[in-house]
Each structure stands twice: as C-alpha cells, then as structure tokens.
Amino acid sequence: MTHSSSPSSASPVPVALSLGSNINRYQHITHALDALSDAFGALVCSPVYESESVGFDGSNFLNSVVLITTTLGLDDIGPILKQIEDDNGRYRNGPKFGPRTLDIDVLTYGDLVGEHHGIELPRRETGRNAFVLKPMADILPDTRMPGSDLTYAQLWANYPKEKQKLWAVPFEWRGRVLS
C-alpha cells in the first residue's frame, strides 16, 4: 500500500529510529544523539550494542534504537535524518553494504504499515536483525510491531540468538548511562 502523504498533525507520533556506525563509532553515535535531541526533544534510548557487520566484511558496528515523538510527517523527518548523517561525514556513493560513519533509519512511524514515501514500514530489518530487534525489545517490550500480533519482547524471545551475535557496550550520553 502506497500513500501519497504521511500523517502530519498536531497529534504527536512515536517514531523509532535505528542508529548504526562502524567508523569512529562512539563519536558518531554521540553526535547523532545530540542532533536528534536538538531536532526532536526528549529521546528514549536503548542500550548501545556492538555487533558484527551484516552483509559485508568490516569493522564491528555500534547500534542503538531511539524513540522520538514528533508532529512532523514522515516526509519531513527524512531530510532531517539525512542532514544529520551528512553532518557526520556520511558517504553516499559507496556500496549499499559497507562501512558507515552514521546510518539513521526510520524503523516505525506510529502504526503505519506498508510503503510510505519510499520507506517500507515497519522497516524490514526490524524483525530480522538482532541489532534492531533487541533494542526495540528493550525500549518497547510490550508494544506490538505494526502489522504483527507479537510484541517486540515476544519477537526477541523467538529470535534465533545464534543467527547474529551482539553485546551491550558501556556508553554514556549527556551524563546518562545508556548501557
């Protein structure tokens, strides 16, 4: 299902964002959190996890999921996220699977399901990759993934843990211990 526009109203919408970096990882995740906080206000942050790269041979990634609440439409959020990536040296001409200074992806936008502004919601890797699913289960354990009858905690409980390894790493942001 494709929609010509995404919701934009005075009603705040929860949006889950995936953060990933495998180049100057701590610096770029910190800068992303700062920029997201400046742009959207209060953040709900998962622990920060380290995981092996998926889809290519490369340095380990740091990954996190951040929940924002916004009245902006999905089409208005995208340019903000791209600007944050660009401000952190994101190189867009490389291979799809490769090293990243910073990658920010919209995982969910409220309860939307299907393709919206070229983004598949919920994002396909939300239920497929440990580095997304585990942080979602951390911050939204009792929430059902849009389009699913299962909560993130249930999806994580059913996830084959040997498929992808990840582990929490020490991480502080603005005096808050995230993990």
Q: Which short descriptors sum up this protein?
A:
11 strands, 26% helix, disordered N terminus, Alpha-Beta Plaits, 179 residues, alpha+beta, 6-stranded antiparallel β-sheet
Describe this structure as you would to a colleague:
The chain is an alpha+beta fold. It has a single domain (11-169), classed as Alpha-Beta Plaits, CATH 3.30.70.560. Helices cover 26% and strands 26% of the residues. The chain contains 4 helices and 11 strands. It has helices at residues 25-40, 74-87, 130-139, 152-158, and strands at residues 2-3, 13-21, 44-45, 49-51, 61-70, 103-109, 114-116, 119-121, 166-168, 172-173, 176-177. The strands form 3 sheets. Strands 2, 3, 4, 5, 6 and 9 form a 6-stranded antiparallel beta sheet that branches. A 3-stranded mixed beta sheet has the order 1-7-8, with no helix packed on it. Strands 10-11 form a two-stranded antiparallel ribbon. Helix 1 (25-40) runs antiparallel to helix 2 and helix 3 packs across helix 4. It is globular, with a radius of gyration of 15 Å. The termini are far apart.
Mind summarizing the main beta sheet? Answer: 6 strands, antiparallel
**What is the N-to-C order of secondary-structure elements (H for helix, E for strand)?**
EEHEEEHEEEHHEEE
Q: Which fold does the CATH topology refer to?
A: Alpha-Beta Plaits
Radius of gyration: 15 Å
Q: What is the CATH superfamily label?
A: 7,8-Dihydro-6-hydroxymethylpterin-pyrophosphokinase HPPK
| Annotation field: number of helices | 4
Which structural category do the helix and sheet elements fall into? alpha+beta
Please give the alpha-carbon distance between the first and last residues: 38 Å
| CATH architectural arrangement | 2-Layer Sandwich
Question: Helicity range of the residues?
Answer: 25-40%
In round numbers, the mean pLDDT is: 90
Shape type = globular
Number of strands: 11
Number of domains: 1
The low-pLDDT segments are 1-6
| β-strand amount | 25-35%
The CATH class, by name, is: Alpha Beta
